[in-house]
């Protein structure tokens, strides 16, 4: 679900659209989708319904998609504040958890992933630690441990 190769630090992204394109492109590179454009469209449709921006610089873009081959979480940090992403506290998004879920298995699994991440992201200590960890293996272990606890 979350692997070291699904973690991307300090990417050169400027807007929400840049971030969604980056996520979709990486999903294709990683074999999580065989239709990058279709997956991007599903992310965009979801964002049109309601922004996935949270608070403290985080967002959880997610897509239930026919184009997803398996469930995955990608973590992305941006060098820049991402323009165009509405958040609950009006802070700019710089950190993303992108959830990719096949439509066929999107029920409980999708909701549980979002719930566990959102619960963890309510904790300032969790967010601060995410922002300070620069080792992919350490970050992966920290995220998975927190998701198990929530």
Report the CATH architecture. 3-Layer(aba) Sandwich
Number of helices: 5
Share in β-strands: 15-25%
CATH topology annotation: Mannitol-specific EII, Chain A
* Order of helical and strand elements: EHHEEEEHHH
**Class from helix and strand fractions:** alpha/beta
In CATH terms, the superfamily is: Mannitol-specific EII, Chain A
Spans where pLDDT lies below 50 across 5 or more residues: none
Proportion of residues in helical segments: 40-55%
Shape descriptor: globular
What's the pLDDT, averaged over the residues?
Answer: 93
In whole angstroms, the N-to-C terminal distance is 16 Å
State the total count of DSSP E strands.
5
Largest sheet: 5 strands, mixed
Structural descriptors:
Mannitol-specific EII, Chain A; alpha/beta
Please write out the topology.
Layout: E1 7-11, H1 16-29, H2 36-49, E2 58-59, E3 62-65, E4 72-82, E5 93-102, H3 108-120, H4 124-132, H5 136-149
Parallel strand pairs: 1-4, 2-5, 3-5
Antiparallel strand pairs: 4-5
Helix pairs in contact: 1-2, 3-5
Descriptive account of the structure:
The protein is of the alpha/beta class. The chain has a single domain (4-149), classed as Mannitol-specific EII, Chain A (3-Layer(aba) Sandwich). 43% of the residues lie in helices and 21% in strands. It has helices at 16-29, 36-49, 108-120, 124-132, 136-149; strands at residues 7-11, 58-59, 62-65, 72-82, 93-102. Strands 1, 2, 3, 4 and 5 form a 5-stranded mixed beta sheet that branches. Helix 3 crosses helix 5 (136-149). The longest helix has 14 residues, at 16-29. The chain starts with 6 loop residues before the first strand and ends with a helix. The mean pLDDT is 93.
